[in-house]
Structures are given as structure tokens and as C-alpha cells.
Write a structure and sequence with these properties.
Elements (H helix, E strand, L loop, with lengths): L1 H58 L6 H7 L6 H71 L40 E2 L17 E4 L5 E3 L4 E9 L3 E8 L4 E10 L6 E2 L4 E5 L10 E6 L7 E2 L1 H7 L5
Antiparallel strand pairs: 1-2, 2-9, 3-8, 4-5, 4-7, 5-6, 6-8, 6-9, 9-10
Length: 313
């Protein structure tokens, strides 16, 4: 079972590397698209200018020699001025044609770069999704093995209910829009154990960020989402998992009271629980995780994730 968690951990790191690459490539593609729109606009203006110059020359005999055209124009009292105007028109047309040819080349190159960028972006997203599927596959298998080895040791929540079966975690999940608004899980706190910390209290490195708060402190959803699990397992005590529209999951653990139910929609800042000291806890605090999947073993650095979403702790 341990090797499944280790493989899931490696896949989680790959997933986050792909995610950051996707964000960078998305920005690059957007710049290319803007450049392409600007070039297309300039190209249309150049084509319009060329059309106007060509029509003017056609109306005034621009195909004739300059000297003869100057004599045949309506302003015959000033043929030298007419000749100068015609030469200027010829020059303007030639310049516009050169600019148009250059613009055509640049436009074609930018289109090719944009197409290549989109192709690369699709490849990155595909790899990111493959990493996510690998994580879920391994962690589902690990959870099934864990349930099998603890068969007969059914645990009950504080309200007497039985925690949901691991295979049913996603059953309540549904589509939800995610406004661009995120917040902290608690308001007043002292940061304690950080993500990745190594301590004898844990079998592996710490998988979340701990917020030291008194028992009964309100705990808030950090963003819009749907509650997909309310549980009370041995390690995390009373806990809640929320799925967000951006594909990530947030986990709130060691709670003293739960204030939401599975399938309930929550928005950023909605109270969902009260902090506590349940489960494997050395003192009152909120254990907060961000996961790539709903399962334990796919956690990423929550402080960095919150920072990326405009929230500093």
C-alpha cells in the first residue's frame, strides 16, 4: 500500500509542474492572440489605404507617365505641383505595398506560433489530466486496501452517522461555477506546522498547513465549491472535503462541529465548521489541506496555493 502512496506523491508533483507550465503557456498564447489581433487590424488598415491610393491613381490616370498625368489633371495651372502630388501618391502606394508584404509575413508567422502554442498547451493539459488520473487510480486502490485491512472496525461520527465509503466520495459532486474570490479558512490564528514538515508525530511528512486556534473558532470555506465528504476518521478526526470548480479540493480537519452536509454548495467565506482537537491532534488547531484529488496522498503546499489565488496567510 505504501508504494501506491509514493507513486501518487510523484504523480502529484508532476501534476503541479504541468499546472505551472500550463499557466505560463496560457499567458504566452494569450499574448500571441493579442499580437495576432493587432496585426490583423493593422493589415486591414494597410489594405484599405492601398485600395484608396489605387483608386485615386486610376481616377487621375496614374498609369500614364508622371509628366503627362500632371498636364492632364484638373489643376493644369500648376503642373509641377500635380507632378509632385502624383509622385507622392506613387511613393505612398509603394511604401504601403512594402508594409503590406511585411505585415503578411509577420501575420503568417504569428499565426503559426499561435497554432503551435495552442498545440503545446493541449499537450500539457493532457499530461496534467493523465497525472491526475494516475493519482486517483493509485489512491483509490490504497483506500480500498486500507478499508479491507480495517474491516469490522467501523468508525462513527460524533452525530452517530457512518463515514461515507471511499468509493462514494465523488457521488455527490456536481458542476459549480467558481467566482474569482478566495479567502482564509480562519480569521485570527497562529501558524504552526507547515506543509512538508518532518516530525515524529506523523508517519510521513506533514500534508497541510496548521492554524493554531481555540476550540470553537469558526472555519470558513476558502472558495466556492461543493461539499463532497464529511467524515471522522482516526487521524483527522471530524473533517470536511470541498471540491472547487478549478479541479482542486480543500480539506478541513480536527473539527469539533460540522455545519454543512454532503452535496451542499458553499461560497468563499461561508462558515462550514468549528475548529477542534479531534483525531490525532496534539492541541486545538485547524489542519488545512489542498489536494489534487479528494483522497489523502495528493496534497500540495496550501500556503503557496492560497498565494497563487491572491490570499496570503
Amino acid at each position: 500500500m505504501q508504494h501506491l502512496y509514493e507513486e501518487a506523491s510523484r504523480a502529484t508533483r508532476r501534476h503541479e509542474e504541468y499546472r505551472r507550465s500550463v499557466e505560463i503557456q496560457t499567458g504566452a498564447v494569450e499574448l500571441l492572440r493579442k499580437d495576432l489581433r493587432d496585426q490583423q487590424s493593422n493589415y486591414r488598415k494597410l489594405r484599405t489605404d492601398i485600395g484608396e491610393l489605387a483608386r485615386m491613381q486610376y481616377r487621375h490616370g496614374g498609369l500614364l507617365p508622371d509628366s503627362l498625368w500632371a498636364l492632364l489633371t484638373p489643376s493644369q495651372n500648376d503642373p509641377l505641383r500635380n507632378m509632385s502630388l502624383m509622385r507622392s501618391a506613387h511613393h505612398g502606394l509603394a511604401t504601403s505595398l512594402r508594409r503590406t508584404r511585411k505585415s503578411t509575413v509577420e501575420l503568417s508567422r504569428t499565426k503559426e506560433e499561435a497554432v503551435a502554442g495552442l498545440r503545446f498547451l493541449r499537450q500539457l493539459r493532457k499530461k496534467q489530466e493523465e497525472a491526475r488520473r494516475k493519482i486517483e487510480q493509485n489512491l483509490r486502490r490504497a483506500r480500498v486496501l486500507q478499508v479491507a485491512t480495517t474491516a469490522g472496525n467501523t468508525r462513527y461520527c460524533a452525530d452517530g452517522s457512518v463515514p461515507p465509503h471511499p468509493g462514494d466520495l465523488l457521488a455527490a459532486s456536481r458542476s459549480v461555477d467558481s467566482p474569482d474570490h478566495w479567502t482564509r479558512p480562519v480569521n485570527e490564528y497562529v501558524l504552526s506546522s507547515e506543509f512538508g514538515a518532518d516530525d515524529s508525530r506523523w508517519e510521513n511528512r506533514h500534508t497541510g498547513q496548521d492554524f493554531a486556534v481555540p476550540v470553537g473558532t469558526p472555519v470558513y470555506a476558502v472558495g466556492t465549491g461543493v461539499v463532497i465528504e464529511t467524515a471522522c476518521d482516526d487521524a483527522f478526526g471530524n473533517s470536511i472535503v470541498v471540491r472547487h470548480a478549478n479541479g482542486y479540493y480543500t480539506h478541513y480537519a480536527h473539527l469539533s462541529a460540522l455545519q454543512v452536509r454532503v452535496a451542499e454548495r458553499v461560497d468563499a467565506g461561508d462558515p462550514i465548521a468549528l475548529s477542534g482537537n479531534t483525531g490525532n491532534s496534539s492541541g486545538p488547531h485547524l489542519h488545512f489541506e489542498v489536494r489534487v484529488t479528494p483522497y489523502f496522498g495528493s496534497a500540495i503546499d496550501p500556503a503557496r496555493w492560497l498565494h497563487d489565488h491572491g490570499v496570503d496567510i
